[in-house]
Design brief:
Rossmann fold; 6 helices; globular; alpha/beta
């Protein structure tokens, strides 16, 4: 059975004012369907760059990264956008909620991008908000929600179009211990079914026990992959 994600010799180099910085230096990593994989390591080691390549937000310079058997680097821009819109959900560290839209409108954005009518999209968004415990707050603006509630809206937005791959960048970094574990329980319970795959970048050792496997990164390399149990 093919893995959900397969990275082979992935290299990514940034040019910062004439100085080249190698963010990813020959990454090899397979992530199974239905797996919760965490990427850990010091700041600047390449974790966010790696998930951005996996999610098709960044193009690598060398190597290949296949998601469900598709090499995103070889896709035309429109095809890549379409593939991401249907298959990938991304939870950003800063939430990236639109401040002028209420919770249901924020969550419905991926559905509208995929062509669903606004009324139907918002109806489905409210259903997903109910799953994350925010059904009664669907009319609230982001400014009217706590950090934990905003994070749950961001998670609902990542889940609403039923993607097969969900990628999260530091989902608990701004949350207290109890709220952080509640968010991880939510991700594990809501996201991890039907062979969905979850990849999480984190510094938060308090949530390591939620992972199936943990990939340790340093200086653009994966130095160890281990079972978390």
């Amino acid at each position: 059975m093919n893995p959900a994600v397969r990275c082979q010799n992935v290299i990514k180099v940034y040019d910062t004012g004439g100085q080249k910085v190698t963010a990813l230096n020959g990454i090899n990593l397979d992530i199974a369907a239905g797996e919760l994989m965490m990427l850990v390591g010091p700041s600047g080691c390449g974790k966010t760059t790696l998930i951005s390549v996996i999610a098709g937000i960044l193009d690598q310079d060398e190597g290949s990264c296949e998601v469900f058997g598709e090499n995103l680097l070889n896709m035309r821009s429109r095809d890549k956008l379409n593939f991401r819109a249907h298959n990938i959900g991304f939870v950003f560290q800063a939430f990236n909620l639109l401040p002028s839209l209420n919770a249901a409108e924020n969550v419905s954005v991926p559905l509208i991008i995929n062509g669903m009518k606004r009324v139907e999209a918002e109806r489905k968004a409210i259903t997903v908000l109910e799953h994350v415990g925010l059904g009664e707050r669907w009319t609230s603006l982001p400014s009217q929600l706590s950090g934990g509630q905003q994070q749950r809206v961001a998670i609902a937005r990542a889940l609403v179009h039923s993607p097969r791959l969900i990628v999260c960048d530091e989902p608990t970094s701004a949350l207290d211990h109890e709220t952080g574990r509640n968010v991880m329980t939510l991700l594990k319970d809501v996201a991890m079914h039907k062979d969905r795959t979850l990849v999480i970048v984190t510094h938060d050792a308090r949530i390591f026990d939620f992972a199936d496997r943990i990939a340790e990164m340093d200086d653009g390399h994966i130095i160890k992959v281990k079972d978390s149990r």
